[in-house]
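Supplementary material to the annual report.
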Amino acid sequence: GAGVSQSPRYKVTKRGQDVALRCDPISGHVSLYWYRQALGQGPEFLTYFNYEAQQDKSGLPNDRFSAERPEGSISTLTIQRTEQRDSAMYRCASSPGLADSSYEQYFGPGTRLTVT
Amino acid sequence: GQNIDQPTEMTATEGAIVQINCTYQTSGFNGLFWYQQHAGEAPTFLSYNVLDGLEEKGRFSSFLSRSKGYSYLLLKELQMKDSASYLCAVRDSNYQLIWGAGTKLIIKP
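Predicted assembly:
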């Protein structure tokens, strides 16, 4: 069975451009999470969804960041007017249970974003 | 603030046993997870503890003491493929996972 997939795997963009990062979770997984991970650090929570509902977006750094999951499956993380400090690995994870369950999260390979 | 502390790096010998400690201070507690992450790859799940005590799974065991805000991951019969970073993550009162920076484990022959 397919795992979590993310696209693109690598994205280089110029400062000021908008980018959209896509996450395709494991089929049937109800919750979906977005993280940002710096080299040598653990993932940093950004936001998560139960089905199509965004439950918590308190980790989004500022209002240039937004996420959606309109049909409860594929999710898009959008960064508007990118800045160099947005350069990072962006990871998506999905889980078969809701956030309060004991199920683990399955991580995708990540999108490496570089803002020049 | 919320804080997860783990040693930055540990070294152990193939075939030996190693214990990786994790201490946490979070807003609420709804479970603790350990993940393994090989360089350049995604984290993969190892274990979950929500009650005090030891959870054993093959060569890996994880222990939790909620009163002490403490957990450890025990790896037995170390193999070279166990060289990786080990991440401790606590689920807080908002059901967010708060992650430690990870412990890089180096296995020597």
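Chain B touches chain A through 23 residues (CB under 8 Å).
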